[in-house]
Amino acid sequence: MRENIPTDLPRASGKSVVLTTYVDANLYHDYITGRSVTGILHLVNQTPIDWTSKRQATVETATYGSEFVAARIATDQIIDLRNTLRYLGIPVEESTYLFGDNESVITSSTIPYSSLSKRHNALSYHRVREAIAAGILKFHHIKGENNPADVLSKHCGHPQAWPHVRPLLFYGGETSEIPDLTPNEPIKTEDKKLEKNVKTNACRRSREPFTV
User: Fold this and answer.
1) Please, which of 52, 70, 147, 196 could form a disulfide with 25 given CB 3.0 to 4.6 Å?
2) Do the Cβ atoms of 132 and 139 come closer than 8 Å?
């Protein structure tokens, strides 16, 4: 299975860009309707370029379901963003890095022999799984406290939001140094600092205080 790339694309020029997406969902966010909220953040190299904070169209009774719906929405947006950049003549790296904080969803979508226990989430499962099999994206797990999409899916005060927003404004490192990984494959690199940063954040967001 391969990614369906349009045949009428203009000739790409310049350096290729690395696409990174963070996704999160907040179960029972709307107390009136019982619906969850999806939070998605897209970055091109180190720059936030698009974001989504929207109530889901269906009521989910478990975090697993709401997170899978959010992953499916993120997958659709990733495919759209990749094609948009290609039509603008921008070369795109082979796969987009997708990060989420629900390990069950990542395990179900990245391991081919994993079983799906929630049949009503089958369509979202197959959508995400197909994108991973085609090499469109690579789904990795990060801790919830390191996921900047939390700002888009949850009610956050300044003390909770600023640690996520600050690294997006003042970052360090190069996304070109991200190694090519397969889902759930251990990161092997001699640079221990890079190993830690790549595992928790594909953009190597700096946690050090910003100084001029």
Assistant:
1) 70
2) yes
Divide the 212 residues of the chain into consecutive groups of 10 and give the mean pLDDT of each group.
89 93 94 94 93 93 92 97 96 95 90 70 89 95 92 89 86 57 48 48 42 36
Report which residue type is found at 101. Answer: D
105: enclosing H helix or E strand: helix 103-110
Neighbours of 4 (CB within 10 A): 10
For the beta sheet containing 37-44, the strands, ordered from the edge strand earlier in sequence to the opposite edge, are 47-55, 37-44, 19-26, 96-100, 137-141
Of the candidates 138, 121, 119, which has an alpha carbon nearest to the alpha carbon of residue 182?
A: 138
Whether 77 contacts 40, CB under 8 Å: yes
Query: CA 60: distance to chain centroid?
Result: 21
First-to-last alpha carbon distance for the chain, in angstroms, is 48
Tell me 185's DSSP state. Answer: P
The predicted structure's pLDDT at residue 194: 45
What is each CA distance from 17 to 12, 70, 71, 120, in whole angstroms?
11, 24, 22, 36
> Given CA atoms 75, 109, 202, 10 in this order, what sign does their dihedral have?
negative
- In CATH terms, the fold of domain 19-200 is Nucleotidyltransferase; domain 5 (3.30.420)
Distance CA 57, CA 104 (A): 22
